[in-house]
Amino acid sequence: MQQIKGFSKLSKEEKITWLTKNHFSNSQKAKETLQLYWNKDEKLQKLHDEFTENTVSNYYLPFGVAPNFLINNELYTIPMAIEESSVVAAASNAAKFWLDKGGFKAEVLSTQKVGQVHFNFAAETKKLETFFHHVKPQLIQEVKAITKNMEKRGGGITSIELRNKTAEIENYYQLHCTFETLDAMGANFINTCLEQIAKTFTHEANLYANFSEEEQPEVIMSILSNYVPECLVKAEVSCPVEQLSPNVADAKKFAHKFVEAVKIAKIEPYRAVTHNKGIMNGIDAVVLATGNDFRAIEACAHAYASKSGSYSSLTDASIENGIFRFWMEIPLALGTVGGLTSLHPLVRLALEMLQKPSAKDLMKIVAVAGLAQNFAALRSLTTTGIQQGHMKMHLMNILNQFEANETERQQVVEHFKSNTVTHSAVVEIIKSLRNEN
Ligand code: MEV
């Protein structure tokens, strides 16, 4: 393999030529595969090329929809971008299940975002506290040019606090800032504010007569936090236990096993991780379809799942006075303006499909998608088992892998209506059908 200098400066064509010549036995075929996914519309392709760096092709994910979601008495069709089979089907099933039982209820509990200036100060804390008190109005004043527009709409910086972290790291302090960013996810806004705050803080410390040269604070970094435990949404479903199944005994058994399954995920991290992964199947798919940052959402959700000190289920379930309740509180920092939201045509379409939601509305929809996904997973796990549904969907992937024709597809699907789907069983039947012909 050859090292290359100045790769980013090459044209797209040149990048592809270098890449395919140096990494593939059949460079022409590799080039054709990359080109297969280019958009014919040059303007649209250029838009995608420019989302990130060194773009050589597009990576498609299926864009599916899950209809019939009743959320706070409004019906939604939820867009989902995900490659895993069964996820959209499971979401649709859960939506249908709750449709005639009052649907989902969702409520935003808080919308606070966080950012921090991390710095060292090697003198008396008291001195720093006095300086902070003196400089705080100026920190807010000098960031006004950035916060002005956000403030007009009701947002902005909501607090700046000095936090002493010297018990954990010698000389380490923070300016812990909170923000209201309304319909924007707010990462750029928060980071710009923080960098200005750090600049003013350093500048004013330089002018401050009570600090000697050695006592100047040293800013280490300024960055938003993706942990937003005060940007919280709650989603919930409930119904009388008997409504969970046409047969009362089955309904009671189902409710009992479901609640036990959640209890297990509450105390057992090995199970909790898989349990929460299932929740994130629903959440990430909607987050991606609506152009939001799924890495930030993932990182935050898992940190929140560990808030007690041990990793635990994000969902809760109970049976009280004959009522089955299933709910989740989850922090979600989402935006419906800025970022990709107006740039990416499919993201725009996804947001229009959701009736152009505010960030708060989107928090509710995404939380519901996560709760629905977990409901569907636990319902399968505690009744038929997960593989029945999974393998039925996976059957299609195996058929595609073998480039099965329409007749083969029909015969194979018919066969597996009454037989257990396994990878080897599917391969065997395709082979035997082909041998017969
Ligand atoms: C698979 O992607 C997700 C599940 O494993 C989640 C769960 O076990 O709860 C089905």
Automatic annotation (TrEMBL):
**Pathway(s) served:** Metabolic intermediate metabolism; (R)-mevalonate degradation; (S)-3-hydroxy-3-methylglutaryl-CoA from (R)-mevalonate: step 1/1
MF terms per GO, please? hydroxymethylglutaryl-CoA reductase (NADH) activity
Which PROSITE patterns does the annotation name?
A: HMG_COA_REDUCTASE_4
- The parts of the chain that form a coiled coil are none
Family matches, as InterPro entries: HMG_CoA_Rdtase (IPR002202), HMG_CoA_Rdtase_bac-typ (IPR004553)
User: Which UniProt keywords are listed?
Assistant: NAD, Oxidoreductase
Q: Which Pfam families does this one have?
A: HMG-CoA_red
Do you know which NCBIfam families this protein is assigned to? HMG_CoA_R_NAD
**Name of the protein in its database record:** 3-hydroxy-3-methylglutaryl coenzyme A reductase
